TrEMBL record:
GO terms for cellular component: cytoplasm. Folate-binding protein involved in regulating the level of ATP-DnaA and in the modification of some tRNAs. It is probably a key factor in regulatory networks that act via tRNA modification, such as initiation of chromosomal replication. Folate binds at residues 32, 187. Residues 242-309 form the tRNA-modifying protein YgfZ-like beta-barrel domain. This is tRNA-modifying protein YgfZ. Its main location: cytoplasm.
Length: 327
């Protein structure tokens, strides 16, 4: 089946661990999907389903959030923004088939239409991403709407474009001469370095939102009303029952770590399960990075290894944000 990207070649970049990232890269986000909610009840319906405050989300903002089951375990982590005549919700494509029916389950009682979008998804990364968006898309703010779709700022060096296929194809072809083209492993690298969480099928319904630092990233509102899983999420904050957090780790690996892989930690002369890999990236020299959920009370300097690579040694790196509640 042909797609908007068929005229261009988006390959995995060969980057060593000490190599600078491209000043401008176009990223084909093939492992990501977009959900849209359209209808007068979309905001109120979603407010009762997710961890973030949808009612307070302005047109120029985006937010992270989580959709949980009744026990507070996450079905997905998403980025939410105003899109076309409703809301756009970016998440990993791997959870679409299981998560989307759950999101739609009670929508029959509300005036909202929830469906997977046919819009194409293109990422822009690098120090020139902001200036490029200003030139080719225009507008102001962190979320920029047009008749063709929406541009969303992810962080200081990343923008997402969700638009119709013709628009995305035209933009990509226009920028291809001055940009590096990459598959979405480059997006993975940015997510890991930024400590930005995600849920794939291998980690679905495994963790509560605080286990992946959503409270530190503005993805949980503790002031809004009830939503699915809210009791568990609130109890984790007020009673301090959450014992895990997400961290960045680095080490040598024979293959790229993937979601669901086990990272072991050293305990004296022995090794025990330490945590679960959320996302991984491998450089061309086999140096690797990963996001991993670990106990939040580990001693500084704890050694780690991949369970299926017992000779490997990994170490924890600092997060680019604080996990302290009062920060």
């Amino acid at each position: 089946m042909s797609t908007w990207s068929d005229t261009l070649q988006f390959d995995t970049l060969s980057l060593s661990a000490d190599a600078p990232l491209p000043s401008l890269a176009l990223v084909n986000l093939t492992h990501w999907g977009l959900v849209t909610l359209v209808g007068q009840d979309s905001i109120s319906y979603l407010q009762g389903q997710v961890t973030c405050d949808v009612v307070s989300l302005h047109a120029g903002q985006s937010t992270l959030g989580a959709h949980c089951d009744a026990k507070g375990k996450m079905r997905t982590i998403f980025r939410l923004f105003h899109h076309r005549d409703g809301l756009g919700w970016l998440q990993r494509k791997s959870v679409m088939d299981s998560q989307l029916p759950e999101l739609k389950k009670y929508a029959i009682f509300s005036k909202t239409t929830i469906e997977a979008s046919t819009d194409a998804l293109l990422g822009l990364t690098g120090e020139q991403a902001q200036a490029t968006i200003d030139t080719v898309w225009g507008g102001e703010g962190d979320v920029r709407a047009s008749e063709h779709g929406t541009a969303v700022k992810i962080d200081e060096q990343r923008w997402l474009i969700a638009a119709d296929s013709d628009t995305v194809r035209h933009l990509a072809e226009k920028l291809a001469a001055s940009a590096v083209l990459s598959d979405d492993t480059l997006w993975d690298l940015y997510d890991i370095r930024q400590g930005c969480p995600r849920i794939d099928t291998d980690t679905e319904l495994e963790f509560i939102p605080q286990s992946m630092n959503l409270q530190a990233l503005g993805g949980i509102s503790f002031k809004k009303g009830c939503y699915t899983g809210q009791e568990t999420v609130a109890r984790a904050k007020w009673r301090g029952i959450n014992k895990r957090a997400m961290y960045i780790v680095s080490g040598q690996a024979e293959r790229c770590p993937k979601a669901g892989d086990v990272l072991e930690r050293s305990v004296g002369d022995n090794w025990r399960k330490g945590g679960t890999i959320i996302a991984g990236y491998q450089f061309s020299d086999q140096q690797s990075l990963a996001l991993v959920v670990l106990p939040n009370d580990l001693e500084e300097g704890t050694a780690f290894r991949l369970a299926d690579e017992p000779e490997s040694r990994w170490q924890q790196l600092p997060l680019p944000y604080s996990l302290e509640e009062d920060a």
